[in-house]
Amino acid sequence: MVANGPDGSIYGSSIIPLVMFRHDPVTGRNEQLGNPTTAGGEIYSMAVRHELLYVSAYPGSYLSVYDPSQPWSFGTEAGSNPRGFGPLGDGHCRPHSTTVGPDGLLYIGSTPDYGQLGGAMAVFDPERWEVVANYRNLVPDQSITALTYDPDTGLILGGTSIVGGGGSTPTAAEGVIFAWDPREKRIVWQVAPVEGSQGVAGLTMAGGRLVAAVKGDRICVLDPATGEILGSGRVPSGWVHWAALATHSDGMAYGLTRTCIYRVNPATCEITSVAEPEGPISCGLALTDQGVYFGSGTHLWVYRW
Predict the structure, then answer these.
(1) Are the C-beta atoms of 176 and 109 separated by less than 8 Å?
(2) Which CATH number fits the domain that encloses residue 191?
(3) What is the spatial distance between Cα 72 and Cα 208, in angstroms, rounded to a whole number?
(4) Alpha-carbon span 18 to 37, nearest angstrom
(5) pLDDT per residue as tens digits for the range 159-184
(6) How many domains are contained in the chain?
(7) 3-state secondary structure of 102
């Protein structure tokens, strides 16, 4: 994966073995930092809170926190950097998405373990250093694959996939988008954005609206307060990537397919191709003043604005 860090750098992870790397977009310097967890697979999601980088890795949805301003010394004790918390618990194997919600709590959504259906959403309190809630089967027999927070409504917005752990057989008909009220601790609305779709690959807030990348080639724009679908369309080419949708300072949402970088205007749902790289896009996405950063095989690429 590739994502923005708290220090202006780009962070990412290799796959088996898991090695976290850092790229400085100003100097061009690259660093292999090491494994910030005891998991051996890959980092699935990252989130920034209070200048710290929280990473969640497969297997076990292993959570760690890293302070880029301090020397690297991994451990599980207080004062370690990165400091590993450990697996998140029941229903967590592949932590597809992490977002920071009200009161600075982390919300982490996962696919369950092998052979199982029904992922989970964990709520982690960094100050108490514990999982304060864990919701298994929030949407029955579906995995939690995308999360974002809308500060205007105070809702945690989530997306699901009908696909469970490896070797399981889906029972649900289609993935959904839902809104979770963290105060009332319940789902306040739920909608299937595309009939028969396998699931939701990414969510981001842009211009007061919720932009969703739906597995396949569809983009939907929704009202975050009600779940009303305000517009939809198709990406210019390819299928949308998992965890590859984010909002830039220009107010537009940007995403990736295997063949293109695309832009979504949340006000009009106009979807346009920004660039078509010469090689296949493997993962992403990080947005900076310099451009769009993404992975292509073993290489980190940037499309400059």
Answers:
(1) no
(2) 2.130.10.10
(3) 38
(4) 9
(5) 999 999 999 999 999 999 999 999 99
(6) 1
(7) helix
